[in-house]
Amino acid sequence: MTDYCMLIGGERVPAEGGRTLPIMNPYTGEQVGTLPDASATDVDAAVAAARTAFDTVWSRTPGQARAELMLRLAAIYERRAGHLGDLESTDNGKLVSETRNQARFAARQLRFFAGYADKLYGRTIPMDNPDLFDYTRREPVGVAALITAWNSPMQLLANKLAPALAAGCTVVIKPSEHASMTTLELADMVQEAGFPDGVVNIVTGGVTCGAALTGHRGLDRISFTGSVPTGQAIMRAAAETLVPVTLELGGKSPNIVFEDADLDRAVIGALAGIFSAGGQTCIAGSRLLVQRSVYDTMVERVGARAGRIRLGDPFAPGTQMGPVANEPQQARIEAAIAAGVDAGARMVQGGPVGDDPALQRGLFVRPTVFADVDNHADLARREIFGPVLSIIPFETEEDAVALANDSEFGLASGIWTRDLSRAHRVAARLDAGTTWVNTYRVSGAQAPFGGTKKSGHGRERGEEALDEYLRTKNVMIDLAPTLADPFPLEEN
């Protein structure tokens, strides 16, 4: 049992009144610790600490010094990658091999953005009047709230924290109450790296904490990753304070297989796109669009391979898919599967976990494949956020594009083809923030990431992410020896 404290102004503190929430292991069903359930007063203190640190220290810290601190933090992430991965797998049930890699990817992002910290260049602007000297400055927006989801806390936080620190912002971080441990561990890490008190603040808790933070008038930016309904609620709250918001929300991403594709590769991509991390990723390729001439082959092969995915302990070397992260999510996934069956969808793979003793305690859902799904059915429209794949046939390239774009979401997409011209042609027409060709679910610190439509707006990772935490100031200087007087005095 680990009883965590929050980080506010450099101090490790409990929630007001000592309120806590349990930390549950989704594989064993056991409680492994507690996290503070912060009040509005706690959030006020965290925002005030961030503001003080911004005004007095961090906004005046040279970019090179910020970069050095970020590089120290990156080294700590790498050194602690094993421990952090173990904690995250305990917290949300993801395979430990993936969570350890996500700790290392957090280090990669810190290093990438540290390189920008002393390169936030402005520009000089030629004016019509030669006596005017005009230039711009790129300045940090101020205090940023960074709010992450439970599926990949370390990676999602790194998406936000690295560019925010490089830009010169101070932050108040709120992880999901369903997966907070690695974020709370960050408190020790930033202090070990030597960050000034108040630059990084961490609050945890449920609805009260989240509402107090997203509606706070002391913020200058909110960055949120999570569900569409919560994103909409944050937008409504931010409308009152006029705080700009970056949203990375859900997806119902199309993964398109053309008849000329390398089908061996496409099968692997289809499986990786939806069943990696138990389908609990916003970029999950949950709609597999397959050209009619290879449709039956893909359905058979994907279904057969899905049935052989090994479920079990996320720490066991042979496990290929762990439990889902929490009980509410398991219930939502199972309800979506049952509704699909009731609506007459053809289940190719799936069904109850059964009496396997290794799966009795955990929150497991079998990899589930539906074929012949109509693109207007709930299975194809609603984000399930679990290991549920809908396979949809199409006839022509035009059909594929139309089906892919016929969605409220626009986060990610995939194309499988040997035709280079088709790959570029279709990629240009897909309404999605990311399009992979002959691969899926690959990321890089350098590559911008974000969505369109109900998948949100703004970008994370890549140089574009800095723009979320910077604002442009214009400075204009009159160099003329005299100033034209618009109100000249008349001589008598």
TrEMBL record:
Q: Write the record's keywords in alphabetical order, separated by commas.
A: Oxidoreductase
What protein name is recorded for this chain?
A: Aldehyde dehydrogenase (NAD+)
PROSITE patterns registered for this protein in UniProt: ALDEHYDE_DEHYDR_CYS, ALDEHYDE_DEHYDR_GLU
Q: Does the keyword Oxidoreductase apply?
A: yes
Alphabetical list of CDD domains matching this protein = ALDH_DhaS
Aldehyde dehydrogenase domain mapped to chain residues: 16-475
Q: Which residues form the active site?
A: E248
PANTHER family the record matches: ALDEHYDE DEHYDROGENASE-RELATED
